[in-house]
Fold:
Amino acid sequence: MTKRGLIQELLLRQPGISYRDSESLVSVMFEAMTRELVTGSRIELRGFGSFGVKQRRARLARNPKTGATVQVAARRTPFFRAGKELRVKLNGPSTGEGGSSV
Structure:
């Protein structure tokens, strides 16, 4: 799904909202999420999952084409971890060990 798809879904579910308002709502959400990740905060959407930032150390890597060693700078990388409810919807209820059956 793309940003445009999210806007269309919002329009379908809330017919009283204009396209411009729907577009604005989706943009504000992404801007707020980006701002939180830039500051190093974690975003948790219960039942869906969480977004966070991992710090990657500087390291030596190898250029696969030339074989030359290259210094890769330290960087921050965003990540997403799916919540339990999302995993269950994707895979069905777990019947493995360690879980409680209800």
Notes: The chain has a mean pLDDT of 91. DSSP finds three helices and five strands in the chain. The domain at 3-91 is CATH 4.10.520.10 (HU Protein; Chain A).
